[in-house]
From TrEMBL:
<dbReference type="InterPro" id="IPR011256">
    <property type="entry name" value="Reg_factor_effector_dom_sf"/>
</dbReference>
<protein>
    <submittedName>
        <fullName>MerR family transcriptional regulator</fullName>
    </submittedName>
</protein>
<feature type="coiled-coil region">
    <location>
        <begin position="49"/>
        <end position="87"/>
    </location>
</feature>
<dbReference type="InterPro" id="IPR000551">
    <property type="entry name" value="MerR-type_HTH_dom"/>
</dbReference>
<dbReference type="GO" id="GO:0006355">
    <property type="term" value="P:regulation of DNA-templated transcription"/>
</dbReference>
<dbReference type="GO" id="GO:0003677">
    <property type="term" value="F:DNA binding"/>
</dbReference>
<feature type="domain" description="HTH merR-type">
    <location>
        <begin position="1"/>
        <end position="45"/>
    </location>
</feature>
<keyword id="KW-0175">Coiled coil</keyword>
<dbReference type="InterPro" id="IPR009061">
    <property type="entry name" value="DNA-bd_dom_put_sf"/>
</dbReference>
<dbReference type="Pfam" id="PF13411">
    <property type="entry name" value="MerR_1"/>
</dbReference>
Amino acid sequence: MKPEFIDPKTNYRYYTLEQLPRLTRILAFKDMGLSLEQISEWVNRDLSIDQLRKMLYSKQEELSEQIEQSTLQLRNIEARLLQIEQEGKPSPYEVILKNVAPYSIVSIREIIPTIHDMVSYRCRMFNDLYLWLTKNRIQVNQELVLYHAREFVDHNFDIETAVIIDHDYYSDDITAESKNISINNLPREAVVASLIHSGSFMEVGYALSELFKWITLHGFSPIGPTRELHLFGRENNHDDYNSIVVELQIPVLKNK
């Protein structure tokens, strides 16, 4: 806003009493973090109350997202420092905290009796999934496995093999021919502890135990099923199980 007078010696800006209410509003918007462009739009266009409310709600959402991201970054730094101090040497895995967007999945959930049955069950479950998806001409994305146990078990594994799908590419009237197949939405997770495992499929269990160890060490609790995202492609089509890349995610909540 143009001042009424600028002192040529000090460059101090002088405003009239009539200008002060408008100047006060401009400074208030500046303190809220609004851009000069947004402030100028409000000043010059004389926005309505509804338009002003919409602009402030938008800024509120933007700041909330920034705070959430900064909080996650601070927790990652604190966790990494604590890990170095308590263990003396870095873990083979880098664990980070992040948020995860919601997505839709087609899945089959079963109880696998023993660890020896794991390969054959998973192979059949994924095969049934892809047959159903192909038959219904549904476009598929990444595949994953959900582990529903919240603690260590050595039998009766509650496993869900799944494939992420685009909600826009299938009709809600499509029904599964098998009662085992279901279409669900995985919710947005505000915070997940995540690591990347690269190597043998047989070592995924070790990576998972390291992730649970990190969660306990840093004062978090699991609040949802573990997600094993297959970054290497389809499990049944992979030739070398000594060379896979997966991301492990566990939704967590900070202990009070």
